[in-house]
Design brief:
single chain; mainly beta; 5-stranded antiparallel sheet; 368 residues; 5-stranded mixed sheet; Sulfite Oxidase, Chain A, domain 2; Immunoglobulin-like
């Protein structure tokens, strides 16, 4: 069943979307618009099943008919164009494994609290995305001299505090990033056509960037000759720091280095002796080169990094160690990437609560 916001855009019944999230075992943060994260214990193990992939929405979920849908490429281009889904499917495709993470992932750890969804650590997922490289569509459009920014506009829209009327979800990349980031115009996820909850019929996927850049329900690409200043570019999804008595803002971009412990679970009861600790680590800044684990505040132990590092995907890690002293203790993990970035002990506080990538700490209890 769908409901309609106007004469053109239908949307998914929020009760139906909520039921799907609950049935998939997601942790629902908000029912309408639906925001739900994956249980941390379910992260890792390769790609994330579509139903269990986290859901991040700012407005209600469009239910677009792929047969009627069109993608318009306009603005500072020599060849404005309109694309259908069959048009895109006839172009050479690419499948790329990419980890997407909400910029607010880990926000619940910030003190004092900041506004926004109080995500734990499950607003992240990895999928195999199939589609057309954005570069190919931009090349056919032919950006004109002076073009510098590319805006991606979704079909989702609604009211926002402090603004009159309706705001559409829009985000931009500068032209260099649009051409060289490896961005994909994706129409399939893990071998299946995109579902409405993940952006059907087409979404942008920008490897290494926080998920806000990967606009869903994509309907318009507009090339500009000036910098874009939309709501989700300059008022939300931007860092706000105070430096020298002045407020400095910058849009969120690449994912900060992060690792999470998927086993043992928080507050798990374990036996003395050998203990296997597992998890995943990722960074949009550079490949993961090391993961370290500390038990009970002790020295850091190097975890194993099995398998091959895919360029834009998380990496699984594990460590077999031992715990002997009975009672409560903690397991901590931190990752380092090839650019030398290591997770901090405490998250860097900023007013809107983005990029909170502190060391993950899990309490456990060792039985006698």
């Amino acid at each position: 069943m769908t409901w309609t916001t106007g004469p053109v855009i239908p949307w998914i019944n929020p009760r139906s979307a909520h039921r799907q999230a609950v049935a998939a075992g997601l942790v629902v943060m908000r029912r309408d618009p639906l925001n739900a994260e994956t249980p941390v214990s379910e992260l890792g193990g390769g790609v994330t099943p579509n139903a269990r992939f986290y859901k991040r929405n700012h407005f209600r979920i469009p239910d677009l008919d792929p047969a009627d849908w069109r993608l318009r490429v306009t603005g500072q281009v020599t060849h404005p164009s309109t694309w259908t889904l069959p048009d895109l499917r006839r172009m050479p495709s690419r499948t790329w494994t990419v980890t997407l993470e909400c910029a607010g992932n880990g926000r619940a750890a910030l003190d004092p609290p900041t506004p926004g969804e109080q995500w734990g650590l499950g607003a992240v997922g990895t999928a195999e995305w199939t589609g057309v490289p954005l570069l190919e569509v931009l090349a056919q459009a032919g950006p004109a001299p002076g073009a510098c920014e590319v805006v991606f506009r979704g079909a989702d829209s609604g009211p926002v505090d402090g603004h009159s009327g309706t705001i559409r979800f829009e985000r931009s990349l500068d032209l260099t990033d649009a051409r060289h980031s490896g961005a994909l115009l994706a129409y399939a996820m893990n071998g299946e056509p995109l579902s409405a909850l993940h952006g059907r019929p087409l979404r942008l996927v920008v490897p290494g960037w926080y998920g806000v850049a990967s606009v869903k329900w994509l309907t318009d690409i507009e090339v500009l000759d000036h910098r874009f200043a939309g709501f989700f570019q300059t008022e939300k999804y931007c860092y706000e720091w105070e430096r020298g008595g002045q407020v400095v803002t910058e849009p969120v971009r690449l994912q900060e280095v992060r690792s999470v412990i998927t086993a043992p679970a928080s507050n798990a009861v374990v036996r003395p002796g050998p203990l296997t600790i597992q998890g995943v680590a990722w960074s949009g800044l550079a490949p993961i080169t090391g993961v370290e684990v500390s038990i009970g505040g002790g020295s850091w132990q190097q975890a194993r990094l099995p398998g091959k590092q895919l360029p834009d995907s998380w990496r699984e890690w594990d460590l077999v160690t031992s715990v002997d002293a009975p009672g409560p203790t903690t397991v901590r993990v931190r990752a380092t990437d090839a650019a030398g970035h290591t997770q901090p002990d405490e998250p860097a506080w900023n007013r809107l609560g983005y990029g909170a990538n502190a060391v993950h700490c899990v309490p456990i209890h060792v039985t006698r």
